[in-house]
Write a structure and sequence with these properties.
268 residues; 7-stranded parallel beta sheet; 5-stranded mixed beta sheet; 12 strands; 36% helix; 24% strand; elongated
């Protein structure tokens, strides 16, 4: 089989760089184009040299149409509006689209689902193997401990623009599924002032921001006389990029549709 030809969205960002490095280290996949916003300082630079590799002969462009014209797949960790637009392009062109963007609204997600009728899309709040294993553990723990309070704590770097994180929300959804609850009606996102006692059955979220923290998540199940804590700490963005590359290689052979990392890993 020929190498999967990939366009890197947001090539000048931290995840764009991690994706370029991950593809360079993986057989069966290659970077054929890379793009970023108009006016970005990386425009015109070689994608390989930008991330400390040998030149790839791929100049970063702001011409999205040209970048997609050379590709079979898009790796996209950008922003919700960009990801929706790219999903629509993927549908027009029949491309693979890997979406690691978080902070999407319900309308954004609906537009991406619509695009998945004609594109092969994998969208995940987190592409790491460890987090996707953790989701299963959280669901099991929530089901096994129905009387325990659930709190989800996450911390990320000071440049992250959405909260709670996509991963925190995934963990909340897993806990809610374990108890047959609707997270929308049982989540508590903010506590401030005189809040009264904790509502039974609620799932609480807390978000911390600071420094260069890549991602830390903790699910706390607090009972009357004991507490269980399930943690995940990301030490390197490479783990997300490795998962995204794995997803791209897997979904190229699937039918058009919207898939999750659990599908990629065979957990479903």
């Amino acid at each position: 089989m020929f190498d999967l030809k990939v366009a890197i969205a947001g090539a000048g960002g931290k995840m764009g760089a991690a994706n370029i490095r991950a593809i360079a280290a993986t057989a069966g996949i290659t970077v054929v184009s890379a793009f970023d916003r108009a006016g970005a300082p990386v425009i015109g630079k070689d994608a390989g040299e930008l991330v400390g590799l040998e030149p790839l002969g791929v100049s970063i462009t702001d011409d999205v149409a040209a970048a997609l014209g050379a590709a079979e797949a898009i790796l996209d960790f950008t922003a919700p509006a960009n990801s929706v637009a790219l999903a629509q392009e993927a549908a027009k062109r029949g491309l693979v689209h890997i979406i690691g963007t978080t902070g999407c609204s319900e309308a954004d997600d609906a537009a991406i689902r619509e695009a998945a009728a004609r594109a092969r899309i994998v969208k995940a709040g987190n592409f790491s193997l460890g987090v996707n294993l953790l989701l299963g553990l959280v669901k099991q723990a929530a089901a096994a401990l129905p009387g325990f309070d659930i709190e989800i704590l996450e911390m990320h770097h000071n440049k992250k623009v959405d909260a709670p994180s996509g991963t925190a929300l995934m963990l909340g959804e897993a806990a809610a599924r374990g108890r047959n609850l609707d997270l929308k009606t049982h989540s508590v996102r903010v506590r401030d002032g005189h809040t009264g006692q904790r509502e039974e059955g609620s799932i609480g979220f807390a978000a911390l921001r600071g420094g260069n923290v890549i991602g830390e998540h903790k699910v706390i199940l607090a009972g009357p006389s004991e507490r269980i804590e399930l943690n995940h700490i990301a030490d390197n963005r490479a783990l997300f990029a490795d998962g995204a590359v794995r997803a791209a290689l897997w979904v190229r052979d699937q039918r058009p549709g919207l898939y999750s990392m659990a599908d990629v890993l065979g957990f479903n």
